[in-house]
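User: Hi! I have a protein structure encoded as tokens and I'd like to know what sequence might fold into it. I'm fairly new to this, so please keep things simple.
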């Protein structure tokens, strides 16, 4: 029997032809940790027929340019000269660079991403139709990001949290909240947006 590529010590058995739909994975986050995870997810979807061969990776859009052999970006909060854009100044969107070079030149330079990873600056497009979403963003980005998905992900989608950090109740005893519970709450809000 064949071996699983996701779980190499597991043997796969099928009693009948596959009838389940293909899983569509979206990666929400593209910093150091998100890009590192993308290297593994990207290879795993290519090696397993249970998955769509393309993984959308949400990237907070920044502008970058190659200068003296090093990729740089404008200082945080900087604005291009009046009447100009960053593109006018020789910069290009990070998503375009990632998709062209298959590398996150800012957050994981020198490490190639599998061709299955597609950088996407629009969070809603990133998760449209996703049956599995892997969240690798700063914990404080979760509450503002998930509502922008407006239920674009598949009904019954799985949210997997690789989020680092801690969150606390906003009122009451100021108790810690599990990030997984916060994710579940925010995803339910996204689903409820469909009915509005």
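Assistant: Happy to help. Inverse folding works backwards from shape to sequence: for each of the 196 positions I chose a residue that suits the local structure. Here it is:
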């Amino acid at each position: 029997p064949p071996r699983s590529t996701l779980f190499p010590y597991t043997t796969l058995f099928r009693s009948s032809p596959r009838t389940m739909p293909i899983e569509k994975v979206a990666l929400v986050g593209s910093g150091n940790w998100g890009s590192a995870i993308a290297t593994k997810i990207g290879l795993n979807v290519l090696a397993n027929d249970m998955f769509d061969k393309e993984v959308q990776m949400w990237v907070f859009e920044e502008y970058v340019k190659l200068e003296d052999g090093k990729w740089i970006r404008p200082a945080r909060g900087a604005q291009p000269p009046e009447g100009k854009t960053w593109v006018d100044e020789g910069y290009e969107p990070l998503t375009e660079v990632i998709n062209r070079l298959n590398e996150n030149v800012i957050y994981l330079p020198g490490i190639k991403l599998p061709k299955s990873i597609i950088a996407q600056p629009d969070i809603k497009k990133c998760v449209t139709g996703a049956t599995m979403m892997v969240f690798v963003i700063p914990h404080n980005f979760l509450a503002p990001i998930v509502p922008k998905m407006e239920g674009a992900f598949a009904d019954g989608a799985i949210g997997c949290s690789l989020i680092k950090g801690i969150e606390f109740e906003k009122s009451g005893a100021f108790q810690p909240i599990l990030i997984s519970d916060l994710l579940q709450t925010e995803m339910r809000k996204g689903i409820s947006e469909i009915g509005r």
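A useful reference point when you look it over: The first strand starts at residue 25 and ends at 28. Feel free to ask if any position seems puzzling.
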